[in-house]
Amino acid sequence: MTADGLAAVIRAEWVKFRTVRGWVVGLTVAVVLCVAFTFLVANGTHSGICTGSGTTCRSGHPAVPTGPGGQAVADTYEYLSRPLTGNGTLTAQVTSLTGLVSTNPSDVAPSLSATRPGVAGWAKAGLLLTPATAQGSAYAAVMVTGGHGVRFESGYTHDRPGSLAPRWVRLSRSGSTITGYESADGRSWHQVGAARLPGLPATVNVGLFVTSPVSFRGQAGHPTQATGTFHQITMTGATSGGWQSHGVGMGPADFYPTLGTGSAQPSGDGFALTGSGDIAPAVVQGLLGTDTAASSLLLGLIIALIVLIVIAALYITAEYRRGLIRTTFTAVPQRGRILAAKAIVIGAVAFVVGAVAAAAAVPVGERILTGNGDYVFPIGVAGLTRIVIGCGLVTALTAVAVLGLGTILRRSAGAVSAGIAVFIVPYLVGSSLSGGAETWLFRLTPAAGFSVLDALPRSDLVDYPYTFANGYYPLAAWAGLLVLAAYTAAVLITAGLLLNRRDA
Questions:
Q1: Mean pLDDT in runs of 10 for the chain (504 residues)?
Q2: Which of 369, 367, 374, 414 is closest to 287 using CA atoms?
Q3: Domain check: are 44 and 106 in the same one?
Q4: Fewer CB within 10 Å of terminal CB in the chain, N or C?
Q5: Which of 281, 303, 328 represents a domain boundary (last residue)?
Q6: What is the domain range of residue 190?
Q7: How many domains does the chain have?
Q8: Residue 274 belongs to domain with CATH number
Q9: Burial of 187 (0-12, 13-18, 19+ CB in 10 A)
């Protein structure tokens, strides 16, 4: 198969495709239906987690803070701080970290009267520097955790592990660079991590903090509370004023589920801080019904796929039905070349349709959702690009696979039915299942391709059941596309083998 020969066949197949007005109109219809159904789904959705003043937004619902990078974050903790001007160092010994776990799930008002002893794995007690105590502010912190040893974290997403045992921590500022240290004895120090906070003002807040996130047993989340005790606290640098206590993000208007209220009390020559919440990327927990703009695209994408399945099937079966396939094979005896050219044409056309539909539908869905006052997780330019390209690849791979089914079955009705059964039904079945069975469908069937719509954030810093029931696909976007591509390749190879062995 020469490149020139294939190019000529591709041109001929493209002319053949675009001269059928019904197919071209069908492509436009697919885009319009995708956008229209996205509009309808978004307009009918209201999660009750409000950030705007839309007509369906009920007053009093919390908003999610946004971090320095524009990402949704959890920023809820008890903070005891002092102002620091210029460079300086804060050192403390964390002598204990204890906690309580609510026996009621997070969708029930948590009460300290319904708790059991326990320390969450990501409960945190340590030292934190930030230019402001407003939620979403930049920060750097070194801490002892309930189950993950000493950590140095900054910007809500950057994490460096230390050792498992030390209980001495130190935070040092040099210009805009913040460095965290750990020590087993308070004399010999080891650097855990460092971070640069651009635009850091001359005077910042530096102090002690405690927080404790929701703990999960299965699908049920239980708010927790932690108490950290700090002793042998020393501070160098230009400090002013006394220690000030701040309950950051622990008010009734804040979104993160907390247990009790925070406090900071003297304890011998130090302090005991009690806090609840988390400093980490925000995930769905505490955001019942939270949406992404991509989630409202799903039904529209399925409708568009059905239209493309019909067109892809007709692209080959119409020639069998009218007997034109013999003329095609007479003009180009290399049947594999014909199948490859058709696959390239229908794949390219379907990719453009899927990408254009997604590029138009996602902003529509986001605008409608935010206009209604619903909270929508930000996805950013990179996330939007991945979704647009991913949707184009899903539609392209599906169309090429259905072309293969049409080549195998030679009947329009059979190819369309098989295409819907193989590429649409597994998603519909999987989305209605629970208990883990849906996980295998979204791992092992073409429904894995829909993982390109998974725009909800995940983080290794947050213990959470990232399950389909909570809006998370079991495979990463590109892994899901590889599963779909494997099915497409298998169908196309089978179609090529049969095409060369059977009579026209």
A1: 73 90 94 90 62 43 78 92 96 96 77 90 97 94 96 95 90 97 94 95 96 85 94 91 90 80 92 95 62 76 95 91 78 82 95 95 84 76 90 97 94 94 92 80 93 86 85 90 97 91 70
A2: 374
A3: no
A4: N
A5: 281
A6: 73-281
A7: 2
A8: 2.60.120
A9: exposed
